[in-house]
Amino acid sequence: MDRTMKTLKRFVLVGAPASGKGTQSSFLSEKYDLKPLSTGALLRAEVAAQSPLGLEAKKYMDAAQFVPDEVVNGIVAQWLGNNKDCGCLLDGYPRTVAQAKTLDANLEKMGLGVDIVVYLNVSPELIEARMLKRKACPKCGETTRNGEELCPKCGTPMIVRTDDNPEAFAKRRKDYETLTLPVVEHYRAQGKVVQIDVTEEGEPEVVSARIASAVAAYCQA
Ligand code: AMP
């Protein structure tokens, strides 16, 4: 397969809630010059702005449920159409095999496809330990793990996500395992998955470096 850093343009990042996906999304976007789309951050911004989309999405998000496919697929298709020519990184989408198939079909219509899926496989014990310390910025979507009061990127007061209580978290974890992990297998069958196993807490930079080597190896494969 003809893969070079130049032909890698459409990245998908998959990881459980609190796997460090937000941090690694920032790393990947900077390193490979990708425009990121986090569907979760976009939906939270719509909720904060109390837009019609936000008011609709809030019902599902507060209940730790997935926002309906037609809503999310529509947002992403429009965004991809506006960003055909740049490298991009999808974070939090596709979240189900149905969404993955829609994404593949939408990209195919544009003569494009998913080029690489970075799968952050973080152990459940680590995820649980991190979850309670997590905060999110309602304005720019930045997430932090150390209880920061203000967003390190834009200075907005950080919030604890309404879907980060233990019950909601357990539900999101289960949905991730039953509905989102099959997305990894969908793309593994296409030979597009780079898997990073994380079993011990460490600096995010260490995980970033491992991702960079795995992406480089994927290009040489
Ligand atoms: P996240 O920040 O990715 O954990 O997303 C937060 C919440 O936004 C999720 O629990 C869902 O309610 C909603 N959401 C984000 N992305 C999607 C998606 N691809 N499909 C359905 N719901 C989504």
Can you describe what's shown?
The protein is of the alpha/beta class and 221 residues long. It has one domain: P-loop containing nucleotide triphosphate hydrolases (Rossmann fold, 3-Layer(aba) Sandwich), CATH 3.40.50.300. It is 49% helix and 14% strand. The chain is built from 8 helices and 7 strands, in the order βαβαααβαβαββαβα. It has helices spanning 21-32, 39-48, 52-62, 69-82, 97-109, 124-131, 166-188, 204-220; strands spanning 10-15, 35-38, 88-91, 116-122, 135-136, 143-144, 193-198. The chain has a 5-stranded parallel beta sheet, sandwiched between helices. Strands 5-6 form a two-stranded antiparallel sheet. β5 (135-136) and β6 (143-144) form a beta hairpin. α1 (21-32) packs across α8 (204-220), α2 (39-48) packs across α3 (52-62) and α4 (69-82) packs parallel to α5. The longest helix has 23 residues, at 166-188. It is globular and about 40 Å long. The termini are close together. The model has no long low-confidence stretch (mean pLDDT 91). Residues 17, 39-40, 43, 60-61, 64-67, 72, 92-93, 95, 99, 163, 172 line the site of adenosine monophosphate (AMP).
